Amino acid sequence: MHAPGVHDGCRFRAPPAAIGRLLARMMNALEQELATLIIGELNLEDVPLETVTAETPLYGEGFGLDSIDILEIALLISKKYGFELRSDNPDNQTIFATLGALAAYVAAHRTK
């Protein structure tokens, strides 16, 4: 008798499509978590959560954040997810371009 998920010493593996769907759901959950954090911490009452997508810009249209807001969000993310977002990072314009870009960066660098 084998343990569940084990056959002749090998674990069953999920097909790549299933892994992709799982990663997409996880990313969507992180995007939602970040959107909720941004809206809540910055009191963005005029940004309904249900209108936010991965493509929602953080600057200008979308969230309408300015550089001070971005610094505040960077500090919150650093504390919550266990890594430092530095103000002198040359990729900041890309990292903070959209909610999806920020979520992808957080997913790749988080320690918590």
UniProtKB/TrEMBL annotation:
Recorded hits in Gene3D superfamilies, A to Z, give:
ACP-like (1.10.1200.10)
Q: Which PROSITE patterns match?
A: CARRIER
Pfam families (UniProt xref) = PP-binding
- Residue ranges annotated for the Carrier domain, each copy included: 25-110
Q: Which NCBIfam families match?
A: PRK09184.1
Official protein name in the record: Acyl carrier protein
**High-level lineage:** Bacteria, Pseudomonadati, Pseudomonadota, Betaproteobacteria, Burkholderiales
